[in-house]
Amino acid sequence: MKKLIEALKSSSCTVAMTGAGISTLCGIPDFRGPQGLYKQPDAERIFDIDWFDRDPSIYYRGTRELVYGMRKFKPGPVHLALKHLEDLGILDGIITQNIDMLHQKAGSSNVWEVHGSGLLHHCRRCGSRKTFDEICAMLDAGTEVPRCKCGGAYKPDITFFGEALPEQAFAASQELAIRAKTLLVLGTSLTVYPAAGLPRLTLQAGGKVFIVNGQPTALDDLAAARYDDLQTFADAVLAM
Ligand code: CNA
Prior knowledge:
By secondary structure, the chain is of the alpha/beta class. It has helices spanning about 1-10, 20-25, 50-55, 55-60, 75-85, 100-105, 130-140, 165-180, 200-205, 230-240; strands spanning about 15-20, 90-95, 110-115, 115-125, 130, 155-160, 180-185, 210, 225.
């Protein structure tokens, strides 16, 4: 990790782009890793907007633990390492594909959620709004699918497959990726577009990309360096 740590010390603008892999260290399964959700049959339907509109119970059954059990998860070593980099004045921002809100729980301040989060839910029929806690209360009371008075199902403001990304978060992420002299790509398979295209913006603008991921990614050949182990990355950063 020496090359990466040296780059962090000398970089004038550093940005992290994170994926589900960093939260496996907190006990939250990812999609495509060795123990990922996609090993289960029909898992691809859980975050699919067409399936949600057809049968929202697929989403609510599939995410009891992942989204609504999230209250029990705590930030892991990579979340803490990124907060540490911010405290050192080294990290300018975080682009996350994660929906678990753990960067905010770790205390990081400039976090852009390119796939949204479950903090708010909206009715698919009339657009009325409920908070995460209100939806949790409905689920805790035994509701299978939280519904609005109008009968529509509440959907989290998480970007499902088939939906557009939140405009403001994506625009801010593009800007950060272009400004970054060093982009840390952490725990993502880089397969979900358009977010997966962000590191190419850094490269095109002359910045360097460092990848830490347990499995190969399509960008490995263009990276300044790549490493497998997120825990080793976190340990090296926390020792700075
Ligand atoms: P992904 O496609 O599941 O990829 C995760 C990557 O992380 C895989 O390539 C793994 O090999 C790697 N990985 C997992 N654990 C480790 C580890 N301990 N050390 C090193 N590498 C590891 O997930 P992406 O984030 O790339 O895909 C984007 C999706 C996943 C987004 O839309 C997310 O919303 C969605 N997701 C988020 C969460 C979460 O918020 N925690 C959980 C599951 C899925």
